[in-house]
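Appendix B. Raw example, untouched.
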Amino acid sequence: MVEEWFDRDFLESLDKLATGAFVVNNERKIVFWNMGIETMTGLSKEKVEGEMCFNSGMACVDAYGRKACTENCPLVRSMERQKPVAEDYMVKTRMDFRIRVRFFTVPLIFEGKVMGAFAIVNDLSIEDILGEKLEEMSKVALEDQLTGLPNRRAMEIILETELNAMKRRQIPGFGVCMLDIDHFKKINDEFGHMVGDRILKDMGKLIQSVMRKGEYIFRFGGEEFLIIFRESESEKLVNAAERIRLIVSKHDFGVHRKRITLSAGVTPAGPEDTITSLVERADRAMYASKMKGRDCTTYLPYDI
């Protein structure tokens, strides 16, 4: 059922296209329905051609929940404006579930008169599935599998962003804190690795639960954690680390007659710092706390 104003050869080439395509006249009657849109919706050419598009059974809903056929029809808008229109909708499929599609509609003008509209309908469900998979893969790539905290790779991404922003003076200074669980090897040797793993998970949850706005915690590796603080002054940085250290030292990790403590090292980020120089300085500060007898905090300034 093809109107005389539409190129029949073009329609024949479209008919076997996997992408959905259909044509309506200026009264919104469907005059062409290809195999792609038939496969997508389950609505046959025989059933649909000759029907008004709003009676075709292709229920489209936009992002605001409006029914496209009655409230927000891209075909009507394209014909009224005499311009192409692109918009995403949810469309019911032959399996009676909805998929996301993108309508691209073009007005069909013959001898200066709008005769109808041509629509290409792209199935975006594969795109959505791939997006979900990529998000899932990204989460796995940036998440420590034991503690669920952001991992070392995530730390590098955030630190690079923070350093660049600080150097462009988009954010004020910040500092980092390296934390190491004291005598963790002894805990593993005495109570087993299952208990050690549980302590690491509980430690991560505990510290994360008391983090303040704008602060980040990462599993650095082994029994080490790294925190980004919004402080850069020495006293404030030490106080921030001490707050975390004291909370941990008072917490009951369920290990018989064993108090779990942390050694902490803090340092401010400097204008010439790289990720490596900043983390290494925090690490040196933490080892200085170990040398002092553990369960304490050491501050190292930027110029050391």
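End of appendix B.
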